[in-house]
Amino acid sequence: MKKRMSLLFVIMLMAVTVLAACSGGGTAEQPPSQGEQTEQPPAEGNGTETTEPPAEGGDESQGYFEATDPSLNPAAALNRKDTLIVGMTAPKGVFSPFYWQTAYDKFVVEAMFDSFFSIQGDGTYANRLAESVEVSEDKLKYTFKLKPGVTYSNGDPVTVKDYAFAMKVYHDSSYDGQTDMLSVNIKGGKEYNEGKATDISGIKVIDDNTIEIEVTEANAMTKDNLGTVSFVPESYYGKGYKQGNLEYMKELHAKPIGSGQYVLKSFSPGQEVVLEANPNYFLGAPKIKNVIYKTTTEETRLAMFQSGEIDMDMVTVNEDNVEALKEMGFLDINIFPTNGYGYVAMNHKDPKFQDPKVRQALIYGLNRAEVVEIIYGQYANVINIPQSGQSWAYTEEGIEPHEFDMEKAKQLLDEAGWAPGADGIREKDGKKFEIHFSATADNPVIDALIPVMTQNYQELGIKLTAETLDFNAIMDKKDKGEFEMFFAAWGLTPDPDSTVYITDGNQNDIGYSNPAYDAAMKKGLNAFDLEERKAAYAEAYRILNADVPDLPIYQRRDAWTINSRLNGIDITPYKTFAIDLYKAEIEQ
């Protein structure tokens, strides 16, 4: 299922940018789930879980770096015996599995709600509320059995009727949240959405613990999309439900009730979210009684670690920050590849960007390695396809690295008919080659990129003019198609399915189109054998690599910093700390 892209994803560490889909997509302020990507403002400064420090002489740019002297732990932290404080950007307060918009709201949702499946550290899914799942031979029917005896925090029993209700919400004509459940192709879903039916015919409740879902068309993501729908008590969320009117649900955003690990005790906008352990959690009561999500900023995080005000936070990865954190001595630092990438977008409706030779010249003529070194040093690497190096779909076979080559870039522009004018700026059909770049204000990536790009392209015979705007203003220009070039980043989901470069795709903001790429992506999504999917996506990436729809720049690192007195915090590029928070404990 595809998740509509929302461009709120803060500067979640000033360095993340992401894309996402269905119950697995992302929004600008959310960690991606499955199928869709999230677009975010570039930040400063995700694979397999890194739990061991790098070997001597090994890669210092990533790994799990354990505290060197836990005895330096500040008293304020040591005195908290039953409370974990997690630093983060302030949540908006939309604590609803239907409507959450930011990564930080999602952290609350993940701690309070459960679904049939839960994401694992490697990006695959495993049973959570599901006791079993049966899939018909033609893959059009899915029978889920719910584990017995599960209850919501208000004492109501969890039944599959609640799941069926959640599906009605997602299919309701008035639903305007992030998830596009219609793309899952549940039989009767379209009719319900259009008000032609009062039930979704493809959803059948067999008994309180068994439900059957029939789809009209299946693909590799169907089972995961169906299995990641959060359970909510219909007795609470459905009390005011009338088909075609979900307005009443907004009143419940800050008053969530779920079956998950924790219960919401209080929310102080801009300050903190206070959670308390659910003693009746079906996987066992959480080991840490109280969890507080406390608001931090780029400027306050290090000081709050030093004083013991926070136990965990995501910190921008750069050499100064990493050195400062290590010097504190009592902190573990988990550095791993971001599941996403930074890129420069080009508007394909602009005639000058429609020639592949021009786009190839632009990537050969930009010293991407220099840009990456300036911004991140060892904590990022240049990329050549829009995929994480940790993904099962990643490939280097047949991929041109597009290393900086000014002479080759000049030759390509010559072949494309762009000849140097009297002032050195190239011209074609009476038009000079000028690029208007929409640049994000006060952003270290832009601060490094623009000078290098300006100098490189001037040598190439292209005049670059940068206009400085805030990120949301740039995204508004993008939405209207009123841009030539801008920098942003995409956050990826565990599955490579994406509409970012698909002709007329939901997330295709640049107007790119290539039927051969569309066909390869469709083949990858519709295949069920992993090797067939790998081959299809490898072909899709080779097409993009040759066609250069945009300029891929880097894959950087993320860093979660964790007080050494904590154990059982499980974080990977695909899995957030909140998923299995009930397992975490404080060393006494």
Question: Can you describe this structure?
Answer:
Strands 2, 3, 15, 16, 17, 18, 22, 23, 24 and 25 form a ten-stranded mixed beta sheet that branches. A four-stranded mixed beta sheet has the order 4-14-13-12, covered by helices on one side. The chain is globular and about 80 Å long. By secondary structure, it is α+β, with helices and mostly antiparallel strands. 24% of the residues lie in helices and 22% in strands. Helix 9 runs antiparallel to helix 11 (406-415), helix 10 (368-376) packs antiparallel against helix 12 and helix 14 (515-526) packs antiparallel against helix 15 (530-547).
Q: Which shape, going by the Cα principal axes? A: globular
Query: What is the number of beta strands?
Result: 27
- The portion of residues assigned to helices is 10-25%
Radius of gyration: 24 Å
Tell me what portion of residues adopts beta-strand conformation. Answer: 15-25%
Structural class estimated from helices and strands: alpha+beta
Oligomer: single chain
How far the N terminus sits from the C terminus, by CA atoms, comes to 44 Å
Main beta-sheet strand count, sense and barrel state: 10 strands, mixed
Q: Tally the helices.
A: 15
Mean model confidence by pLDDT: 89
List the uncertain runs: 2-36, 43-57
